[in-house]
Amino acid sequence: MAEQQKTVIITSARRKMARARCYLTSGKGRVYINDTPLEILPIEVVRMKIMEPLMLAGQNIASSIDARIYTSGGGVMGQADAARMALAKALVKFTGSKELEQIYKAYDRTMLAGDPRQTESEKWMRYSARRWRQKAYR
Question: Which of 63, 87, 100, 117 is such that its CA lies 20 to 30 A from the CA of 134?
Fold first, then answer.
């Protein structure tokens, strides 16, 4: 009996302090975020943001893959952006399609390229990154 090998594509992405890893295999169109199905995530904006790469790829591709995305660090929206980027990278790698890559870049370049902005670190003897103590002249 010949065993069919299942290819697993692993990608990762970062946004602010959030990190995401995506494990993509061929399957039935199921997407899990931290072992929770994408359809039952409580925040709708987060759900729609993570679904963007699947909607742009089309129903044909979206129904033929299974994705498990694990996020950590940062906030809810940072994790959503990181998960979205990891899923988009995995879909491009899985299909090997230059057309899909061009669609993602035309829609939103940060789906593949990322956003390098980070929060500035707090300085010594200050209240925040740039705020200094108030000074009274009189």
Answer: 117
